[in-house]
TrEMBL record, chains A, B:
<dbReference type="InterPro" id="IPR005260">
    <property type="entry name" value="Asp_kin_monofn"/>
</dbReference>
<feature type="binding site">
    <location>
        <position position="74"/>
    </location>
    <ligand>
        <name>substrate</name>
    </ligand>
</feature>
<dbReference type="Pfam" id="PF01842">
    <property type="entry name" value="ACT"/>
</dbReference>
<dbReference type="GO" id="GO:0005829">
    <property type="term" value="C:cytosol"/>
</dbReference>
<feature type="binding site">
    <location>
        <position position="184"/>
    </location>
    <ligand>
        <name>ATP</name>
    </ligand>
</feature>
<dbReference type="InterPro" id="IPR001341">
    <property type="entry name" value="Asp_kinase"/>
</dbReference>
<feature type="domain" description="ACT">
    <location>
        <begin position="275"/>
        <end position="359"/>
    </location>
</feature>
<feature type="binding site">
    <location>
        <begin position="209"/>
        <end position="210"/>
    </location>
    <ligand>
        <name>ATP</name>
    </ligand>
</feature>
<dbReference type="GO" id="GO:0009090">
    <property type="term" value="P:homoserine biosynthetic process"/>
</dbReference>
<dbReference type="InterPro" id="IPR045865">
    <property type="entry name" value="ACT-like_dom_sf"/>
</dbReference>
<feature type="binding site">
    <location>
        <position position="179"/>
    </location>
    <ligand>
        <name>ATP</name>
    </ligand>
</feature>
<feature type="binding site">
    <location>
        <begin position="173"/>
        <end position="174"/>
    </location>
    <ligand>
        <name>ATP</name>
    </ligand>
</feature>
<keyword id="KW-0808">Transferase</keyword>
<feature type="binding site">
    <location>
        <position position="47"/>
    </location>
    <ligand>
        <name>substrate</name>
    </ligand>
</feature>
<dbReference type="InterPro" id="IPR001048">
    <property type="entry name" value="Asp/Glu/Uridylate_kinase"/>
</dbReference>
<dbReference type="Pfam" id="PF00696">
    <property type="entry name" value="AA_kinase"/>
</dbReference>
<keyword id="KW-0547">Nucleotide-binding</keyword>
Length: 419, 419
């Protein structure tokens, strides 16, 4: 017998029929003798509808009222799932964030969970009761509903799993696991059995979109074994209830990964834009002068590359922003030109960042060189490079995106089945 | 300066534009210096949608989960109205039932309010804050959301007004007051300035549909001056903000009604059915034998008429039920024929009950005779009669409904403007 937290996202609970399918997944685990808590999102489309009403009510709105409105979506799903579970003979009850309680900080609209009191739920596990928890919400110190920001139900699930000391947190979603790269681009992409928290964090933040970054961070901190699997498979298909080896990808501590690969996956992010400032005066504080105003305006600066110019008094500064922020960013920089002291600003959209990710990189050399050589052989020009301990990111022209992903996926042997 | 509770129903808050209109009504009262609490229903259609999801989830469902799902509708409206009010510069915040708290009994799905702690709201009145309260909901002793049953927002409003010791509870609805009869049937129907609680209770329970019966009972018990008015008029039209004499109908204690009429209004209820049991054995307990099983099955028996038969050992028993319950009622009676000991059962649908209501009846004689004579003059056959202190109800064939209403409206002089 194990203790499991199952999380189902918006598309998995889009209507009552799908909620019934979710209930079959839950019942399977209950019938296997596990203690089960379920975390649910709003029915797909509902959150957008509620958010649009708030915007229509006023473009600038009190985050506490926004939270009150938007949190209602998860409330509905939790109640409906409890009803369906009961109709299948499963003892279940719904829990709102304020009932558990899931205590958050005061940052309404993007709150952080501070504490979860799991004692009531654990007590009811002993009575065989399933807890159906409204995701995405908690209660702030002002005794008002707080939401965790978009995609927050993943975070709710991981936090609940940590509080309940669950053996595993199963994230049911519309994909059946984490792949070595995007299967729509590279059909040879393989589903990984396991990936480390650190690698998943890079995959998630680089656009793999399976899990919210914050939920992976939280899972890493609390060492919550998190499992990504599909909610759309037949809940009673063979192997679905296999506790040791169900179909999907386990995100876990690297110690749990026996067969470590040097490179685990290839991620990419399209629609990047590059801004270059030529002949910036090379003095202390210049980076702050440039990036401070951008940060204040909420522009998310990603790769930053700085070269020393020939005469040593001027430098070239290149960085990337999401293409959607390009106009805003260039306007801010033009307006602050006198502070920033550069000669020319150049910018270009339509770029892609491809990233090679692998925890094994830390102990292997030549990983970057292999990437550069493989891209060069295909005639793909590299515009910028940044690296971390477990990741190499390369900025290229958008038209080469798919070719670059396939090339890198192949050169590190990810096409081949693991031994 | 007065303390007001304003209540807006589903059609008044059907979308964000209408909510904006509601906010203008609220702002008008705030600008006039009043302390204001607002009680809101779900956006029209939302409650039905939520209820249908519950039914789809399972025809028989846990009332606590039903409450969790259905109460979300009012939560959304309360948050949205608070946002709109703030955008108009009105200090406002939303309150859920559990936040105030509005304590109910344990009868989830049709709970009764047991206590409202108005202290927080009153404290914030002093800071100029408007309370926007989700109607229809409270918190049960199990710390779970409880709803008051359909139309419960009227009851919420009156209960809040009693708890806050409000000077008046304004029920904004899609009609502009209480009329002497249905204006769709009798164009000469006039809006009453005032009606007593007792009369309104008869009007409401007889199908006038302006206010929920329970809310009127509650208003009567707590002597909450309740005012019915239209939410669809221009909030800033002349007279709308007149505290002493706004457009609408005041439901109040009879002491407040100076010019008492003998008859105040004519109500009607269509789609009634009549069941007659012929030659019922006239013995003690026979009424219980007949009506017990019907009550157990939830059939709402209304008018009951019993005549002694010629030989004194048998009696004829006639009663009415809603036409929609007729088949159920006759089946129950047929099945229990051995207990009930009657000869023949006769039934007929398509009937109408018209009622003459007036507190002045208590001190005037001949009111009933006037009705019978007027109907006879029009050739309308009377099938059954029941009377109370302030009401005469007459069962007639449905085809005469409109004629009977107009005849009675005229014979008591209700067509004419009051002096």
């Amino acid at each position: 017998m194990a203790r499991l937290v199952l999380k189902f996202g918006g598309t998995s609970v889009a209507d009552v029929d799908r909620i019934r399918n979710v209930a079959r997944h839950v019942k399977r685990e209950v019938d296997a003798g596990h203690e089960v808590a379920v975390v649910v999102s709003a029915m797909s489309g509902k959150t957008n509808e509620l958010v649009s009403w708030c915007r229509e009510a006023s473009p600038i709105h009190d985050a506490r009222e926004y939270d009150t409105v938007v949190a209602s979506g998860e409330q509905v799903t939790a109640g409906l799932l409890a009803i369906v579970l009961q109709s299948m003979g499963v003892n279940a009850r719904s829990w709102m964030g304020w009932q558990i309680p899931i205590a958050t900080d005061t940052a309404h609209g993007a709150a952080r969970i501070e504490d979860i009191d799991g004692s009531d739920i654990i007590r009811r596990f002993a009575e065989g009761q399933v807890a159906v928890i409204a995701g995405f919400q908690g209660i702030a110190p002002d005794r008002r509903i707080a939401t965790l920001g978009r995609g927050g139900s993943d975070t709710s699930a991981v936090a609940v799993a940590a509080a309940l000391k669950a053996d595993r947190c199963d994230i049911y979603t519309d994909v059946d696991g984490v792949y070595t790269t995007d299967p729509r681009i590279e059909p040879k992409a393989r589903r990984m059995d396991r990936i480390s928290f650190e690698e998943m964090l890079e995959m998630a933040s680089l656009g793999a979109k399976v899990l919210q970054v914050r939920s992976v961070e939280l899972a890493m901190v609390h060492k919550v074994r998190t499992f990504v699997r599909s909610s759309f498979e037949d809940p009673d298909a063979p192997g679905m209830g296999d506790f040791e080896n169900p179909p999907g990808t386990l995100i876990c501590d690297e110690d749990e990964i026996v067969e470590q690969q040097v490179v685990t996956g290839i991620a990419y992010a399209k629609d990047e834009a590059q801004i270059s400032l030529r002949r910036v005066e090379d003095r202390p504080g210049i980076a702050a002068a440039i990036f401070g105003p951008l940060a204040d305006a909420g522009v998310n600066v990603d790769m930053i590359v700085q070269n020393i110019s020939e005469d040593g008094t001027r430098t070239d500064m290149t960085f990337t922003v999401p293409a959607s922020d390009l106009d805003k960013a260039t306007t801010i920089i033009e307006n602050a030109k006198s502070d920033m002291r550069f000669d020319v600003i150049q910018s270009e959209g339509g770029l892609t960042k491809v990233s090679v990710i692998g925890i094994g990189m830390r102990s292997h050399t030549g990983v970057a060189a292999t990437a550069f050589k493989a891209l060069a052989n295909r005639g793909i020009n590299i515009r910028a490079i940044t690296t971390s301990e477990i990741k190499i990111s390369i900025l290229i022209d958008g038209e080469f995106s798919e070719l670059a992903v396939r090339t890198l996926h192949s050169v590190y042997g990810l096409d081949k089945a693991r031994p």
